[in-house]
Amino acid sequence: MELSSREFWTVIHGMVFGAVFLLAFAGGLADLYSLRPDWVTTPGITERMTRLKAGLWTMAVVVWATVITGTFIVYPWYRVAPPEGTTDFGQFPRSFLLADPSRAEWHSFGMEWKEHVAWIAPIAATVVAYVVSYYGPRLAGESRVKQVLLWFFVVAFVTAAIAGVFGAFINKIAPIR
Questions:
Q1: CA torsion sign, 78 to 81 to 86 to 87?
Q2: Predicted confidence (pLDDT) per residue in 13-45, tens digit
Q3: pTM score, two decimals?
Q4: Which of 70, 156, 166, 168 is spaced 20 to 30 A from 141 at the CA atom?
Q5: What contacts 3, CB < 8 A, 6 or more positions away?
């Protein structure tokens, strides 16, 4: 199997960076949720906090890498305009989707989500990583702060997951070659 450089970057963007973030979410969520003084000993909280900080910062970096590679490497190839008079849009994903009204929604909603809303994921993931680092072990006793962080974390996951699903389907219908 051979990948073009464009296909390679599409795989890096979605299947490596995006998938790592989405898969790591469950572990981060479980660690954050179970960070409770009545469930874990003080030494356990300290040990868990080290792992939680490292994991959350890694996830934040990975989701930033996902959005940045998507926006500045993959997306420009998606938007390439075909030369005047082109009738075969197979090499021009955006034009291919917009040429048929039955496929146009994939661009109108799916790519718009990926272009704009997906930026919420790295911002929210960074907020969670920063606040966990700021509070450290004290976070175990701050149930309100933890609840807000869990919501931010879920928002990061949901926006990234939706963007990932749209990306997979759009790439299936109109691949970047």
A1: positive
A2: 988 998 899 889 988 888 888 888 888 787 888
A3: 0.89
A4: 156
A5: 11
